């Protein structure tokens, strides 16, 4: 069993007028076997949190800690974090012209496992993963994400999730841009991953829709760079009905004291 622990995390980005603090003391603990959903208004820092954990160089951690089973993730390079078992599905997956999906997946798998996957089983695994998200096998020959529709990019993220099988998956709006069938297919992929029982999921989303398919153990409301409220599935329902107004006003009031 593993634990991903974020303690009092402060993160800034460089802007033309100097560093700007985006994350203002995030506390979050995810244990293997758990599904956590983060919901919050646009610009509250959800993607910043995802990128900071994964090690994007644009984000400067000014204080706080991120550990996996006590190991300091912040001291690791991006690929070390991936090898330690961290996976990030980006809100806007990057296009990589000239690198085929097949090549990309095999290279990533080799880098993470420290050895190349056996060719015979690997092809079967890739085909199976693509079939399960109803992604045409032809995609294997296309450049990574290039010209993919929004929904195709998200399905491709789930293929990666299945093949790389990390210990902790951070999924940033993996439900955005999906049609009704794709939402179910992608959700089932995430559920298969988490059904292994010893994996952790951090799901960033705007919609309670996906939470009909993926049942979170914990829901966190993220406002103004920190977790403002935590609860169970019922909190997501309440947010849907009431919106974020209450939390935004409380955060603003706290900021002006
Ligand atoms: N270079 C920058 N200069 C100024 N502000 C920045 C810069 N980079 C990021 N930000 C700000 O950081 C804040 C947090 O952005 P982030 O993408 O983490 O939000 P989010 O919660 O993921 O929003 P969304 O729900 O729209 O995806 C935003 O207000 C954004 O404008
Ligand atoms: Mg975002």
UniProtKB/TrEMBL annotation:
Coiled coil: none annotated. Pfam families: ABC_tran. InterPro entries: AAA+_ATPase (IPR003593), ABC_transporter-like_ATP-bd (IPR003439), FeS-cluster_ATPase_SufC (IPR010230), P-loop_NTPase (IPR027417). GO terms for molecular function: ATP binding; ATP hydrolysis activity. PROSITE patterns: ABC_TRANSPORTER_2 (PS50893). Keywords: ATP-binding, Nucleotide-binding. SMART domains: AAA. Residues 4-249 form the ABC transporter domain. Belongs to the ABC transporter superfamily. Ycf16 family. PANTHER family: ABC TRANSPORTER I FAMILY MEMBER 6, CHLOROPLASTIC. This is Fe-S cluster assembly ATP-binding protein.
